[in-house]
Structures are given as structure tokens and as C-alpha cells.
Specification:
alpha+beta, 34% helix
Length: 151
């Protein structure tokens, strides 16, 4: 996707329009803010300023689809300048992170279940690394007569 310095959506591929639930024709010429979730707009503006300062900037924030649903998006913005250093336009690669975020959440849930299972198992479970205990569950601590460090 390419935005002009007036923050209008100028050129985009079909995938960009589709991820937002619009057609290319619907989005062309619209303000870039139209696809940014309202509570992310201030952060979007701040990140665009950083892109202008650095020439390239990567950040995450929420977009909004035509139907009003939100989705997390990764922005990879490159600023193109003329010979005098004036900003001509921005090139943006936007990636919908919905599937990735869903997978990360499932992984966190799985890790939590696994940790609770191991920590509360009635049998002693431990890991040794180079002859030292790297991990002991509660039952293993009792078996070896050890105590958890006080926090």
C-alpha cells in the first residue's frame, strides 16, 4: 500500500483491500485513518512521525474492517524522499496478525495447563542439567527434602 503525504490511500494490492473488507476502488483516495481503529489513531500518527524521522519504522496497532470488526496489524513503513529531503510518499507493508495472535494465545493457554499439571503432579518430576537441579516440582521438592525459596 502507498500513502501520499496528505495521508490518503493511493495505491494498494487486492489483499490490503480484502483484509479490510473493502474493494480497491472503495479505499483509493480515502484517508489512511479510515482503516485504523479509533483508539489506535493517536499511536498511528505518532508512529508515522517516527517513520518520517527514521526513514523506516515497524510497529503494531489495530485496524478496523468495513463491518466494524478490529484486527491487529503489523506495519512496516518506508518513507521515500526527493533530492531535497521532502517526503514524497510512504510505502507500507501491512500484515493481518489475527491468526498469529490467536496461535500465540493458544500456546500461552497450553503452557499454563502444562505448567499446572507438572507443578501439581503427585509424582516427583525434576530436570537435571550438568549434574544440578534445573527444575523440581512440589512433589520432587518433598522427596528431596528441599523448600521453595521465599519470595
Amino acid at each position: 500500500m502507498v500513502t501520499s503525504v496528505n495521508d490518503r490511500l493511493d495505491i494498494m494490492n487486492p489483499a490490503y483491500a480484502e483484509m479490510h473488507g473493502w474493494t480497491i476502488e472503495d479505499l483509493t483516495g480515502r484517508p489512511a485513518m479510515d482503516v485504523i481503529a479509533e483508539d489506535s489513531r493517536k499511536a498511528f500518527a505518532e508512529n508515522i512521525l517516527q517513520a518520517h524521522e527514521k526513514g523506516h519504522h515497524i510497529f503494531e496497532l489495530d485496524h478496523i474492517r468495513k463491518d466494524g470488526t478490529r484486527f491487529p496489524a503489523l506495519h512496516d513503513i518506508t518513507v521515500k524522499r526527493d533530492g531535497m529531503g521532502n517526503v514524497l510518499y510512504r510505502i507500507a507493508n501491512i500484515q493481518d496478525l489475527t491468526a498469529q495472535k490467536r496461535t500465540e494465545e493458544k500456546l500461552r493457554e497450553s503452557e499454563t495447563r502444562y505448567r499446572l499439571l507438572i507443578e501439581n503432579a503427585p509424582d516427583g518430576i525434576f530436570v537435571q542439567t550438568q549434574g544440578r537441579f534445573a527444575y523440581l516440582n512440589k512433589a520432587a521438592m518433598r522427596i528431596f527434602g528441599a523448600e521453595y525459596p521465599k519470595s
